[in-house]
Design a protein that fits this description.
globular; 13 strands; 13% strand; 429 residues; Rossmann fold; alpha/beta; 2 domains; disordered N terminus
Length: 429
Amino acid sequence: MAQAESEVANRPRVLVVRGSFGALGGAERELLQLLRSVDQRWEASLATLEFPDHARELLAGANIQLIHPEQFPTWPSGARAEIIAAASKMAESLWKKVDIPWDRFDAVHLSVCKGTLELLPLIPPNLPVHYHCLEPPRWLYEDVLHRRLDGKPKRPLWLTKLLFTSQRRRDQRFVKQLLNRPHSAISGNSMWIQRRLKTVYGVPSDPTKENGEPPKRDALGRPLEATHLMHVIDIEAWPTTPHPDETTDLASAPAPPEPYVMTVGRISHVKGTWETLRSLKGTGLGLVHVGGGDQADKTALEAEAKRIGVPLVCMPRLSQAGLVGLVRGAAAMVSHAHHEPFGLTPIEAMAVGTPALMVDEGGFQCTMSGVESGRLIRRDHPEGWKEAYQALDDAELRAAWSEVGRPYVESKFTLHVQVAALERMLGFS
């Protein structure tokens, strides 16, 4: 009994910070998943400026203290708001009103998001801080989020760059503050983002660093390099054998074309949805899209599918079991995403034995470099894509791809691996 009490008393006390959970995407879900997995291992608290009910449901039952303002903000939007960095300034003001008991924590884990870094100036200098920069904000440093579905700019790109000048300066300032703190660290979610951190922020990286390995530091304890902390999946949510719920939950969804490949992510240029659809012309394969998007983009995608003769089904929001069943039934998981920071979809596909055909760039190069469970194909190589789609008819090859995928995922991309890596990064092991 005394030993058990001692173990509880000695648990690391960690404050996890993410500015908003308003958009409950993959990054938000994974962070909540992480919190659920450590609630018996850490004394964990979550600080956020926005935590709607649908996020709260995913944390139900976990022993996690929530810290947030009494009222969630309505974030400013529009051109003027972007020009003056209104959302960032609001976040900075809101954090000052949130009562955070700093003396109760041993370390702070920041997850990149609107409103996260704005807390940094309030964190006591003695607390170790890890900033998990899943990617430098792409809307500030790249043009892929400022293009229409077909790749055409939404507005002159020079104007877009000008609009975000103030935002970029604030982001740079906060990151510089972080890098000048003793006992701090900055990591990407892949070696690709590790390199992007050098391009955007000028912080060097060491490609030999292992997942979760802390950075080298100077005499004052400041980081001399960026490292990486990879994403994972809850492997138990992706079983090797079909569960009856998969069929049941898909019964009310639109029937997919047969045969089909699938792509996941918001209908958008950055996710390469248009390119994925067009790559299927003449292959006899249909496309199932999961991930939502603007109605105008969905309409344009459906019109293009009809024009080029590719069967297309855009799925509504699916349960976990329904999604697993859909992935399991697909001929392949496919993506033409532009410089995807990490890319969970090939991992999810491999977990249930479905091949992954991914564009050869970004985080896909990292997640698929150690396994032959599909192919990486250049964006500008249409014949390579056609050949890969044809290869899906090779039962022997598909069986080989399927066989190696699951063990690879279990060895590198599970919650156990991620928690251990994060504890190394925070100095708990």
